[in-house]
Amino acid sequence: MKEWNAVTTKINKETHTRLLNYCKMEKITPSSYIRGLIEKGLLKLIPINKAGINKIEYKKKEDSFSWKIEYDDGEIIEISDNVSPSFFTNLKEAVDSASSLRNLYINKKTKHSTPIPSKLIKLR
User: Fold this and answer.
1) Which domain holds residue 61?
2) 51 - beta bridge partners?
3) Do both 94 and 115 map to the same domain?
4) Would you say the pTM of this structure is higher than 0.70?
5) pLDDT tens-digit profile of 80-108?
6) How far apart are the C-alpha atoms of 57 and 81, rounded to whole Å?
7) CA–CA distance from 61 to each of 49, 83, 108 (Å)?
8) How far apart are CA 101 and CA 13, in angstroms?
9) First to last CA, the chain
10) Helix 13-26 crosses helix 30-45 at what angle (to 10 degrees)?
11) Contacts of 35 (CB under 8 A, 6+ apart)
């Protein structure tokens, strides 16, 4: 069972009206909207020591991608639900370039070789 704590803040009338209108349009409560903003913001600030995998799905109708991280404990975090194809093309090029530089640095020659921890190398 989760234990909940309340958090309050003061906002001006115009911001409050915009918040209520937005939540009504999205069919969510102001509390759930604010909770989501806080949780997403804190995830960016607090390091997470968890293992998981990237999940990228192509959405045909929108011609875009959804990008999520699925942690080994079953938790799923959405990075973005609307990533453009050009962004992923650029990201892939950047990752390939960085990986190539790393492979040169560690003197990797074959596709399936893996770096050997320095402690094991010292055992020789």
Assistant:
1) 49-83
2) none
3) yes
4) no
5) 999 999 999 999 999 999 999 988 888 88
6) 9
7) 35, 13, 41
8) 54
9) 52
10) 100
11) none
Using CA atoms, how far apart are residues 63 and 57, in angstroms rounded to an integer?
11
At position 124, the amino acid (one-letter code) is R
Q: Which helix (H) or strand (E) holds 31?
A: helix 30-45
Q: Which of 57, 63, 96, 107 is nearest to 80 (CA)?
A: 57
Quote the tokens at residue 8: 């309050």
Amino acid found at 101: L
Q: Are residues 16 and 41 in the same domain?
A: yes
Q: Is 19 inside any structural domain?
A: yes
For residue 27, being part of any structural domain is answered with yes
CB atoms within 10 A of CB 67: 19
Looking at the 3D structure of the chain, how many domains does it have?
A: 3
Give the tens place of pLDDT for each residue, 20-56: 999 999 999 999 999 999 888 876 665 667 889 999 9
99 and 116 in a common domain: yes
